[in-house]
Structures are given as C-alpha cells and as structure tokens.
C-alpha cells in the first residue's frame, strides 16, 4: 500500500474497485475519531464518494496535516454523493463503553446516508448493527479510498467539536 513510505492514491482506489462487483454499485466508507481520546465524544463518519483527481491527497486522517485535512474535508463534502456523521457523548461512552459507543456512532452515520450504499466498508475488526451488507477492514483507513475519506470527515468534525468545547 505504500511507495517510499507513502500511500498511493491509485492503490486506495483499486481496493475499493475490487469490491464493486455486481450487484454492488456503491460503497460507503466508515471510520471514527476520538476512540482513544481522554475527553470529548467519539465521532464516526460514513461517506459515499467517487474518487477524483482533486481528491488525490485523501489518506488516513492521521497522515494528513490539520490544514490539509480541512481542505480535503471541504472537497469531500463538495464532491461526495452522500455523507453522514454520528457522535456519542462522553457520558454515554462511560455508560456503555468505548467499543459500543464507537459502533453506535458508526450506525448513526451509516443510517444518515441518502442514498443508501450497496456495501459498507468499516475500518476495524467490528461491525455496527446496520441493515446493509458490510465488511470490517482492519487498517482500512490505509487501504480504502472510501474509508480514508470517512476518516478525514470524522477527524475534522471531531476537531471542530473539541474547538467549540474549548471556547
């Protein structure tokens, strides 16, 4: 997945294209931000977005600077077919545990998508309880364009929430 330590855009696209086998015509990528944080909500994003040259810098959000994440977020929002975000607050995280909270945020994000995807690719080893065919992809934010795009949306959304809380 890398060339000289860098993820290659074409490989992210190739991964997703390998899953577009009839009857699957659309993919949603799902990722979360805030699962390892000491404060704030866990936020998940689901994105249906076709690759485009202007999105060639899409990567796992942890590999992109804050300034570039913001720019990519704007482009993803402009170009995506659908997106959804789910968030679970710290009180609920404490009540149900971080894994259940993460899966709940992912479910909320996927359920917000319109139109619905034919297949959902989820970063990680667990799947949320959703009504769509889904696959858990370990390290998916470094393998799949759709998951990487969702990674950026989740991270930027959570960062904005945390900045609001700080004020």
What Rg, in angstroms, do the CA atoms define? 15 Å
Q: How much helical structure, as a percent, in the residues?
A: 25-40%
SS element count, helices: 5
Please state how the strands of the largest beta sheet are arranged side by side.
5-4-3-6-7
**Tally of strands:** 7
Q: Which ranges are low-confidence, i.e. pLDDT below 50, for 5 or more consecutive residues?
A: 1-5
Main beta sheet:
5 strands, mixed
Strand content range: 15-25%
Straight-line N-to-C gap:
39 Å
Mean pLDDT: 94
The class by helix and strand makeup works out as alpha/beta
Any idea what the shape is? globular
SSE pattern: EEHEEHEHHEEH
What this model shows, in words?
By secondary structure, the protein is of the alpha/beta class. The protein contains five helices and seven strands; from the N terminus they run ββαββαβααββα. It has a five-stranded mixed beta sheet with strand order 5-4-3-6-7. It has a two-stranded antiparallel sheet with strand order 1-2. Helix 2 crosses helix 5. The longest helix is centred in the last third of the chain and has 22 residues. The termini are far apart.
């Amino acid at each position: 997945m890398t060339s000289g330590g860098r993820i290659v855009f074409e490989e992210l696209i190739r991964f997703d294209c390998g899953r577009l086998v009839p009857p699957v015509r659309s993919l949603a990528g799902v990722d979360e931000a805030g699962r390892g944080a000491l404060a704030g909500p866990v936020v998940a994003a689901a994105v249906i977005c076709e690759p485009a040259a202007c999105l060639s810098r899409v990567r796992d959000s942890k590999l992109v600077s804050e300034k570039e994440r913001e720019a990519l977020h704007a482009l993803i929002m402009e170009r995506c077919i659908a997106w959804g975000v789910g968030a679970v607050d710290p009180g609920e995280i404490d009540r149900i545990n971080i894994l259940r909270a993460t899966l709940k945020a992912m479910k909320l994000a996927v359920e917000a998508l319109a139109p619905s995807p034919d297949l959902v690719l989820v970063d990680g080893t667990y799947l949320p309880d959703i009504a769509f065919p889904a696959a858990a992809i370990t390290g998916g934010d470094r393998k799949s364009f759709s998951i990487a795009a969702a990674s950026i949306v989740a991270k930027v959304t959570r960062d904005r929430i945390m900045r609001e809380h700080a004020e």
